[in-house]
């Protein structure tokens, strides 16, 4: 059960964008698993991808095609990641793009491929090819909900959000969808998020804005510490509204909305983390550098002992301190470390706070949303990471995923 | 159930060492939880401790007392780690040593305290004090088995081993015991291992030999990536045999036996890892530096996705590749990466090996001992790490540990 997260009831169409989703039978039965997203001519496209060295074939091909410019189509399949598939995987990703180009009457370089699902199996390209005419025929502006559901793998709910943004020359729409609930520790991007707006913006501007929004959102979540091979986050600006940001205030407004949408989607991924029962906001402050703060946050967020204690609603703060202590911070003066869980001061002076009671700890740990604040007392840098607990269901899901 | 590990049926006494174990009622009911180990006068004592910045009070006090020299007594309790207990914890550890000194007629600095168990609770010093006369009265040379069992926490079997080592001037005995099955990622030492020999050796020689043995054994295991606050490994040389190593060949022989004993105990900790069902030997070769090889080994060994796939006996090698890819190796050429699980070549050229079959993968993954070899193809450095899988029982044990 996702934590305080429900599927959106509607997603706003974005002028200049059409989508379709069909059942291609790639891996799952009786569900849609193939999406085509079309942007109007002259749309700007920005994207960030995984930094996993074993990045998937579609990531390599999408990067190549983006560099050529003029992208018009996003082809997205679930059920098969086309990762760890070597030269054959690259050829399959390129062939899929060529088939789309043939059906839609564009160049193959105008198609960006995306895949998510099991690693190491060959992509069934013939099934994709057979499904393409149906996809092309089904394209419509109001198909975001179907696309959102078709890109799910172990997700238990679809994740999507829409915003209207009022700029000085008019109003634009921003809609985004994302999937992912395991192998989540994004590094430059996350497991498949697609955003589009009818704002008018150059590719370079868009790329800079997306990079900044991803840094504070998708790159600050972790479910299990495992960076995926297929992470990708794409932002399309169709320009169909004719509204171009006029000056810094407009750019700030659009960037803020984009950040809010990315924050929502990133946190939605954690709320639907595999087996998750608790949503944890982990803040580390008082560090010497942001990297040091993040290092401590990551050590805590990835500790299986911390995560199983969170699952048990057990205020076993000693495990959190142990993770802070092993995070590799040079010359950490533990007597300056302070920790609060929610509104309860738990640690000060490197040990249990004088007024802490086990009852107060239990009360705050019983909540479904748990904010943890660790103050290192050695500087003014900080970091924030969103994560979840580690439950029986995480093991069940990941022990059964391929069976 | 530990993996191919049974409790020793006997442990050899070490001349110059006496031990006792009693029920002090520190946390557990109806089991022995307090050990006193006495070394004869003039014994040499070497030790390595955790590098966790939040090291426990007994670690701080034991380091101080070791620096003074002349250590004669090791006081070890299970059930309470005396960690995260601030100034009060330090005072409690010192008081425990003072009580031993009073009963045994030595200086408090000649007592080294060790604790293992739950973090963040105060040590019940009065119970320890009450138990001391009984401990003193019970000291005997043949009490290693009782001591081995008394230091257990979530361990399911006691871990111990004895060796006789023939040196040119006579034969010496080496006996060691260890505990630990969770919060295991030793960094300079592991969760409580005590070794003793009647060999005659200086403290400096002993310390060098222990440091080297620990590096290749306890520092190469990981259960959950969480370095403990209480890790300690102690080696006592009583000299009671009168046998001093004569020359390099003798030193080499003793060092080899010490390495073998440390290897056995370190691997025993992983075989009895919390919830473990598989014992994994992870070899990374072809790296540019040993640190790089270790970095890749750690990324794989700590991946929850890899560990749950191992639990499921699922040859989901894509998860292993993904962990290698996110390990942070600069400019990794994935086309040079090769991977074998047991005798099955699974990956070559960065993708599935041509002759690999799912059946072969399933066969090798069904074994209880799984060797994984990852060759990076970019140098000649290597690393080896021992780890275990991640099961329902790991979550159960760590969600229930304090309840």
Question: What is the helix content of chain A?
Answer: 25-40%
Report the mean per-residue pLDDT of chain A as an integer.
Answer: 90
Question: What oligomeric arrangement do these chains adopt?
Answer: homodimer
Query: Which structural category fits the helices and strands of chain A?
Result: alpha+beta
What percent strand of chain A?
15-25%
Q: Please, how many helices of chain A?
A: 11
Q: Write down how many β-strands of chain A occur, each being a DSSP E stretch of 2 or more residues.
A: 16
Radius of gyration of chain A, whole Å: 22 Å
Largest sheet of chain A: 7 strands, mixed
Distance between the termini of chain A: 21 Å
Succession of helices and strands of chain A: EEEHEHEHHEEEHEEHEHHHEEEHEEH
Largest Cβ-defined interface: A-B, 66 and 67 residues
Strand order of the largest sheet of chain A: 9-16-11-15-12-13-14
- Which consecutive residue ranges of chain A, at least 5 long each, have pLDDT under 50? none
Task: Categorize the overall geometry of chain A.
Answer: globular
């Amino acid at each position: 059960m996702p934590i305080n997260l429900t599927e959106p009831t509607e997603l706003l169409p974005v002028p200049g964008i059409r989508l379709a989703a069909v059942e291609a039978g790639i891996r799952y039965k009786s569900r849609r698993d193939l999406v085509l997203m079309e942007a109007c001519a002259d749309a700007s496209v920005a994207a960030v991808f995984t930094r996993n060295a074993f990045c998937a074939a579609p990531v390599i091909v999408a990067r190549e095609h983006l560099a050529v410019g003029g992208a018009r189509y996003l082809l997205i399949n679930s059920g098969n990641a086309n990762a760890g598939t070597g030269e054959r995987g690259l050829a399959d990703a390129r062939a899929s793009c060529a088939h789309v180009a043939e059906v839609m009457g564009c160049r193959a370089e105008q198609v960006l491929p995306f895949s998510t699902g099991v690693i190491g199996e060959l992509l069934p390209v013939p099934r994709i090819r057979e499904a393409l005419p149906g996809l092309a025929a089904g394209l419509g502006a109001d198909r975001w909900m179907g696309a959102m559901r078709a890109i799910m793998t172990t997700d238990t709910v679809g994740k999507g959000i829409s915003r209207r943004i009022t700029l000085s020359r008019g109003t634009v729409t921003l809609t985004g969808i994302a999937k992912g609930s395991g192998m989540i520790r994004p590094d430059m991007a996350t497991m498949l998020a697609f955003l589009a707006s009818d704002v008018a913006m150059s590719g370079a501007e868009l790329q800079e804005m997306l990079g900044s929004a991803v840094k504070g959102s998708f790159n600050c979540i972790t479910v299990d510490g495992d960076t995926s091979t297929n992470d990708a986050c794409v932002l399309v600006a169709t320009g169909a509204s004719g509204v171009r940001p006029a000056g810094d205030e407009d750019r700030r407004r659009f960037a803020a909305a984009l950040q809010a949408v990315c924050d929502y989607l990133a946190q939605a991924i954690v709320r639907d983390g595999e087996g998750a029962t608790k949503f944890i906001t982990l803040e580390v402050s008082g560090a010497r550098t942001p990297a040091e703060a993040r290092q401590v946050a990551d050590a805590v967020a990835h500790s299986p002992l911390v995560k199983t204690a969170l699952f048990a609603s057990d205020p076993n703060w000693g495990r959190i301190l142990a993770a802070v202590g092993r995070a590799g911070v040079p010359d950490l003066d533990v007597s300056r470390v302070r920790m609060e869980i929610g509104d309860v001061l738990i640690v000060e002076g490197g040990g249990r706070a004088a007024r802490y009671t086990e009852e107060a700890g239990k009360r705050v740990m019983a909540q479904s949303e748990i904010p943890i604040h660790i103050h290192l007392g050695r500087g003014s840098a900080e970091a924030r990471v969103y994560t979840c607990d580690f439950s029986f269901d995480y093991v069940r899901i990941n022990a059964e995923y391929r069976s």
